[in-house]
Write a structure and sequence with these properties.
By secondary structure, this protein is mainly α. It has helices at residues 4-33, 39-47, 53-65, 67-70, 91-118, 123-151, 164-189, 200-230, 233-244, 248-266, 275-298, 308-332. The chain is globular.
């Protein structure tokens, strides 16, 4: 029988894959809407991550089939009994909204990529692309909030936070930015790209990493301060359990890797122009986000083991499949050599 703390690694892997799959499209949409010219340098690379959606969908089905492992509230809640959102806690309803939601954002992302490729063909195509681009941020936040609620916030039915969905969205987008930074660096240094990405992109990525570091700490502390100051038992117990319990190491790693180190380093202009330094910060943010997701999922009661070897195995298998899918998409789109 698989322990909950071990199965939690599957949930975390799913959330990471889903984040990467949708965030590439979201980045291109936002850069287009704000008129950032450097979107032309990264748009095809970022949207190549759309190839991860099939993997995310399969993982979603696995998590839903293994619902007893994924959602600890199954079999332990009654309708309206000590629940923040009565009616939300039924597996059929959860499965329906998650499957429909993913299929919807998959279609929306596919449509965005299609319109983006044709956007320069005519004024009519440009207008169609603009229309779909304006919808992407809206659905990114809406869908991201639903996923954050289902797979993290409501794992403990009596616990809730009005800002939690936004905190997770900001945190996960920071992970995506870190991944994009490392991915670009690896492809550039290994001369894999047909059209290499210019070095100034690292500075832009560093600025965005700093911005989302600050935004993450803002949402994190806004939630933490409200819960701590209110001192309501059901709310504060979960947070203090993670902070001071078996997962305290992961909790503090999250704070240092996602805020303290990035803020101290990237606040100065010199490091923001050093690809090596930016690479280290990006890697730390990725690790910190994984620690954060695992702490919130596995540490709902503040107790439990951390099966590191099992987690590494799950990450390796998921990472390998993702590598094959994205690599195939990049070859089909003639983005990489060979």
């Amino acid at each position: 029988m698989i322990s909950y703390s071990s199965w939690a690694f599957v949930s975390v892997s799913f959330l990471v894959v889903l984040c990467l799959a949708f965030s590439g499209v979201a980045l291109c949409s936002v850069l287009y809407l704000v008129g950032a010219k450097w979107r032309q340098d990264v748009r095809q690379l970022a949207t190549s991550l759309f190839a991860l959606f099939p993997l995310a969908f399969v993982m979603l089905i696995v998590l839903l089939v293994g619902g007893l492992y994924t959602f600890p509230w199954i079999g332990h809640t009654a309708h309206g009994e000590n629940l923040h959102m009565p009616g939300w806690y039924t597996l059929p309803l959860l499965a329906a909204r998650e499957i429909i939601g993913m299929l919807a954002v998959m279609y929306l992302s596919w449509l965005f990529i299609k319109r983006q490729d044709l956007s320069e063909r005519s004024a009519e195509d440009a207008a169609r692309f603009h229309t779909i681009a304006t919808w992407i941020p809206f659905f990114y936040v809406l869908y991201g909030t639903m996923v954050a609620w289902d797979f993290e916030m409501t794992l403990k039915p009596s616990w809730h936070s009005a800002i939690y969905g936004m905190q997770v969205i900001v945190s996960n987008f920071g992970l995506f930015l870190g991944f994009m930074t490392i991915w670009i660096y690896v492809l550039n240094t290994r001369d894999k790209l047909v059209t290499p990405i210019k070095d100034y992109i690292y500075n832009y990525m560093a600025q965005m990493l700093l911005a989302f570091t600050l935004l993450w700490m803002y949402t994190f502390f806004a939630q933490y301060l409200t819960i701590w100051y209110g001192n309501i038992g059901d709310e504060v117990d979960r947070v203090l359990g993670m902070q001071n319990g078996d997962y305290s190491v992961l909790w503090w790693m999250t704070v240092f890797l996602k805020f303290v180190i990035p803020f101290v380093v990237l606040s100065f202009p010199g490091p923001r122009h050093s690809p090596t330094v930016i690479l280290g910060i990006a890697g730390g943010i990725i690790l910190g986000t994984i620690c954060e997701r695992y702490t919130w999922i596995a540490g709902i009661d503040g107790t439990g083991d951390i099966p590191v070897l099992w987690g590494a195995l799950v990450a390796a298998v998921v990472g390998f499949i993702g590598y094959i899918l994205v690599g195939g998409a990049m070859r089909r789109n003639h983005l990489i050599k060979g």
